[in-house]
Specification:
The model has no long low-confidence stretch (mean pLDDT 91). This protein has a single domain, classed as MFS general substrate transporter like domains (Growth Hormone, Chain: A, Up-down Bundle). 83% of the residues lie in helices and 0% in strands. The protein is globular and about 50 Å long. The chain contains nine helices and no strands.
């Protein structure tokens, strides 16, 4: 999706270089301003709950990107897009809390391998979707997968908020 964001903003939404730079700036400002507060919030209420709370923000970013009536709305989408990184950090913090320490390195290696393998055809698949289905679907399909696949799967993962304190007792 990332490789298509700026071409979409330019070619489909008619963004200027100022707007394109503003999207990236808004995303980075969101990450810088909200990463620590949401990290602390995740430590307080739980990582899953925080991820569920953040998901509507970055899904809204994708939908706003597609539905924006003018390029200026893409700056708001960029702001919401910053929550994607924050939710990714919160989500990735669950793994070391669930995985036994002796297997953590191997597990991260396996995840890295499959992520890397998936990253090879991803731009090609995105390009095929752009050309044959429509450029907006490059953003809609991942949003649908997020809502209808990833969130339900996360429901099956145990909450790790109090796991460390329970183990020590």
């Amino acid at each position: 999706m990332t490789a298509f964001r700026y071409p979409y903003a330019y070619e489909v939404k008619g963004s200027t270089p100022i707007i394109l730079g503003g999207i990236a700036t808004a995303t980075l400002l969101t990450e810088a301003a909200f990463a620590t507060p949401f990290g602390r919030f995740a430590d307080k209420i739980g990582r899953k709950k925080t991820f569920y709370l953040l998901t509507p923000f970055f899904c809204s970013a994708n939908l706003l990107f597609v539905l924006a009536p003018s390029p200026i709305y893409l700056l708001v989408a960029g702001f919401f897009l910053g929550f994607r990184m924050i939710s990714g950090v919160v989500y990735s913090a669950i793994t070391p809390e669930l995985m036994p320490r002796t297997y953590l390195g191997r597990w991260r290696g396996v995840l890295g391998l499959f992520s890397g393998l998936a990253a090879i055809p991803a731009p090609i698949v995105g390009g095929l979707i752009w050309e044959h289905v429509g450029p907006e679907w490059v953003f809609v399909i991942p949003t649908l997968i997020e809502v209808f696949v990833r969130l339900p799967l996360l429901h099956s993962v145990p909450e790790t908020l109090h796991a460390a304190s329970l183990e020590s007792k």
